[in-house]
């Protein structure tokens, strides 16, 4: 494994919890590279069919991993995606699972046009901590952290904590 000068970070959580807002702001403040996996898949057409029930393309996880492999080896990447168990464990130095209270999440998803089963399933996913459990199974427990993501104050606090963590990581590893 190559020596990395900057850490790789995974931001994960149910759709609508604030991963993209946090990731973009974090990249601006730290100079790390931000990758939204949904956008990456869209640009490279990294799909494997279409899910009629949820009305969305199905991600080709293998092709996404292939696409990201070189970038991740260099370090300094923030990955944003609602799934996490298909990324290689060796990629990440820390994993943040964003959590939002159900009423806020419901409203955020509804404003994005989510309806019916897609809306209900995503809110249930949050209630049952599905993504957090997925992260705990896929990565070492000590690198997985939950962050509240309900208010602008939460966003600011999360940014400050993660920036401090990055600075400390860089001191410890360079």
From TrEMBL:
Reactions listed under catalytic activity: ATP + H2O = ADP + phosphate + H(+); AMP + ATP = 2 ADP
Source taxon at top rank: Eukaryota
Enzyme Commission identifier(s): 2.7.4.3
Signal peptide as annotated in the record: none
Subcellular localization, as worded in the UniProt entry: Cytoplasm; Nucleus, Nucleoplasm; Nucleus, Cajal body
Any single GO CC term annotated in Swiss-Prot or TrEMBL for this entry: cytoplasm
Annotated residues for binding of ATP: 16, 18-21, 112
GO biological process, one term: ribosomal small subunit biogenesis
GO molecular function, one term: ATP hydrolysis activity
HAMAP family the UniProt entry points to: Adenylate_kinase_AK6
Protein's name according to its UniProt entry: Adenylate kinase isoenzyme 6
Source organism: Sinocyclocheilus grahami
Gene it is expressed from: AK6
């Amino acid at each position: 494994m190559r020596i990395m000068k900057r850490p790789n970070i995974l931001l994960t959580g149910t759709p609508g919890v604030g991963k993209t807002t946090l990731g973009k702001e974090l990249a601006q403040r730290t100079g790390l590279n931000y990758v939204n996996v949904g956008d990456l898949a869209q640009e490279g057409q990294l799909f494997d069919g279409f899910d009629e029930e949820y009305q969305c393309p199905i991600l080709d996880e293998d092709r996404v991993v292939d696409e990201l492999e070189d970038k991740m080896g260099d370090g300094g990447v923030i990955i944003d995606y609602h799934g996490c168990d298909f990324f290689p464990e060796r990629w990440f130095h820390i994993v943040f699972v964003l959590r939002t209270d159900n009423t806020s999440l419901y409203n955020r998803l509804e404003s994005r046009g989510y309806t019916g089963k897609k809306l209900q399933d995503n809110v249930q996913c949050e209630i049952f901590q599905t993504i957090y459990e997925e992260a705990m199974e896929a990565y070492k427990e000590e690198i997985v952290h939950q962050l509240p993501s309900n208010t602008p104050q939460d966003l600011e606090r999360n940014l400050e904590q993660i920036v401090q963590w990055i600075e400390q990581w860089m001191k410890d590893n360079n």
